[in-house]
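Backbone geometry tokens:
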Amino acid sequence: MYLIITFIFLIFLTFFSNFLGVLFEKIKLPSLIGMMVAGFILGPFGFDKTPELILKISPILKDTALVTVLFIGGLGIGFDQVKKIGRPAILLSIVPATLEGFAIAYLSTIFLNFSFVQGAILGFIIAAVSPAVLIPSMVKLIDKNIGQKKSIPQLLLVGASADDTIAITLFTTFLAIYFQKIEGIEFDLKSQLIVIPVSIIFSIFIGWAISLLGKYTYLKKDNHIIKIFLSFSCCLLLRFVENKYHFELYNSLLSIISFGFFIRFYDKNGYKDIQAGMNRIWKYGKIYLFTFVGMAINPALVGGYFLIGLTILFYSLSIRSIGVLLSLIGTDLTFKERLFCVIAYLPKATVQSAKAGIPLQMGVAGGEIMQAIAILSVLITAPLGAIGINSTYKELLKHS
């Protein structure tokens, strides 16, 4: 009986979240905000009507949706476009997140009386751009053929996928530094920083190796349903391995997006069928992704740190925006196109929702403050970035 009630609720959640998404689109706001609102209303910090089983499986559903949109993002990137965006994409993956993370570390010593290491733990939770918000928006622009002449959506797709690797690696690095300092153990920062480029290269290599295997097996088949099923299964497997084993040198998000890129490269004629199939999955996947992100938002938690958090975010996002502009020096982008890139790099949601509670769970001093400010960053920047992208792309980017 409990399973039947849970299943009925899941159907209701799908319709209710989709309804609010459409409603928000009617008032010229991104549908994802409506879906997040739906999640908050039904979730534990709203009316608390969500069955326990759904809350338990929500990380799986959210991960599946995230995997879907990352794979679609990879399929949207052509080899010729990568040659165009190489240097700025690398800089976008490193400079904004690094500058913002260290800016928050410094600001935390002033506003929160944290040590620099505590501040860096918070900084690199917040510093990651949200693939859940940015990637669907860029996929939509690719479908509409907007910004394609200069491959701007692809530039942001590639930069954002590696940006998360930088932020998450530095987050775990400073967590390790914190605990080793408590235990009186010396920490070798240089060796830890070497992990970042190695992790990026290794993760891309994994995506390439799996796609190469596909080239000589199922990609040869004419049946596009088999291609979609096996490609998506590979993506889910890549994500499962990271969630299960937590290898230090492996970032599944980057592997999945590179897997999509190489699938497109190896299956030049058939990749569009795979892309179309994944788009049909994403139609429902996005509902669960943003609804469950909304369920993680606890407004009561952020109330006591609202003004301090807002001040830190104002300065850190300003520093991040400078980092984006520095990364684009030497490109042929116009002022308007650079401004769009700044806006697109604002939103935070998935990484912050997933990592916000870790310092508190691990017993880091000030962990509850870190959780509050990380959730505040989602509340402010996810709508800000989504509305910004949605309302400015027609004005700032050219139709190709």
